[in-house]
Amino acid sequence: MKLISFEHNGTAHYGAILGADRIVDLTPAFGSRAADLKSLIAQDLLAEAGVYVEQATEFLPLADVDLLPVIPNPGQIFCIGLNYGEHVRETGKQITECPVIFMRVNESQVAHGKDIVRPPESHRLDYEGEIAIVIGKGGRRISEADSWDHIAGYACYNDGSIRDWQVATSQWGPGKNFWRTGGFGPWMVTSDEITANQNMRLTTRLNGQVMQEATTDMMIHSIPRQIAYISTFIPLQPGDVIVTGTPGGVGNKREPQVFMKPGDVVEIEVDAIGVLRNGIRDELVTA
After folding, report:
1. Is the pLDDT of residue 287 over 80?
2. Which residues make beta-bridge pairs with 132?
3. Which tens digits make up the pLDDT trace of 194-249?
4. Under a CB-based contact definition with an 8 Å cutoff, are residues 218 and 93 in contact?
5. DSSP bridge pairs for 187
6. What is the pTM of this model?
7. CATH topology (fold) of 77-282
8. How far apart are CA 264 and CA 203, in angstroms?
9. Peptide bond into 28 cis (omega under 30)
10. Among 24, 47, 119, 185, whose Cα sits 20 to 30 Å from the Cα of 174?
């Protein structure tokens, strides 16, 4: 099942994508029990929602809705840094025994089809194609062996980064959290459609040119390792997001450097999920 969050007639909804252009709106049937997709996951209603989708006879055209980030309101967004060997080498860093982790905030994200925004403070806006996992069942000190049972689904992610702000200090937070610089979508593919430890291919394209390509078996810290490590220091909750790391080929480390600019189109494709597509525009700043 492919699940989305969206606005329709000015109100927030969630639903399932059927085919290329139809939506089963789940909000009328489940909204009294689950106000949003995060709540649907938390209430363990995914299986029931799947049955409803199979029996649905009424649909919304995808063109009539305004997509939101897959989970518009995650409680926590954990991002894994330096998790592919090629990216570690191109940055001149060292592989670490434990995952490198930084946080993103909700306001730094945009949905599939929306523009990523380049701020006036810097034009060093870089792409980072990644795979995001959405937590389904929460927990503390989750073992690696049990970790797959805690995943609700998977989505594409662009961890857009303002590079000079990222490296201005030893803390990466500012450069990773500029308003509307990260893409999250186009949907969440539920975990029953992606097998545990399935090897997924991740590709980043900028204006049609392949910039990054890797498979998940190339991760330094596996998805189970990430879940186990994070849940050791804080409980994971349904709807939390873990962004699992980017491969080599980022624009900041190319010769010459390549940064995203207005008019560009960046695509993050994961073979088992789909394609996240965003344009780039400058932020409109009023006096």
Report:
1. no
2. 155, 243
3. 999 999 999 999 999 999 999 999 999 999 999 999 999 999 999 999 999 999 99
4. no
5. none
6. 0.97
7. Fumarylacetoacetate hydrolase; domain 2 (3.90.850)
8. 17
9. no
10. 185
Residue intervals in the chain for CATH 3.90.850.10: 77-282
Query: With 0-12 CB in 10 A as exposed, 13-18 as middle and 19+ as buried, what is 73?
Result: middle
What is the per-residue DSSP string for the chain?
-EEEEEEETTEEEEEEEETTTEEEE-HHHHTTT-SSHHHHHHTT-HHHHHHHHHH----EEGGGSEE--SSSS-S-EEEEES-BHHHHHHHT----SS-EEEEE-GGGEE-TTSPEEE-TT-S-EE--EEEEEEESS-BSS--TTTGGGGEEEEEEEE--EEHHHHSSSS--TGGG--TT-EEEEEEEEEGGGS-TT---EEEEEETTEEEEEEEGGGBSS-HHHHHHHHHHHS-B-TT-EEE----S--GGGSSS-----TT-EEEEEETTTEEEEEEEEE-----
Percent of the chain with pLDDT over 70: 100
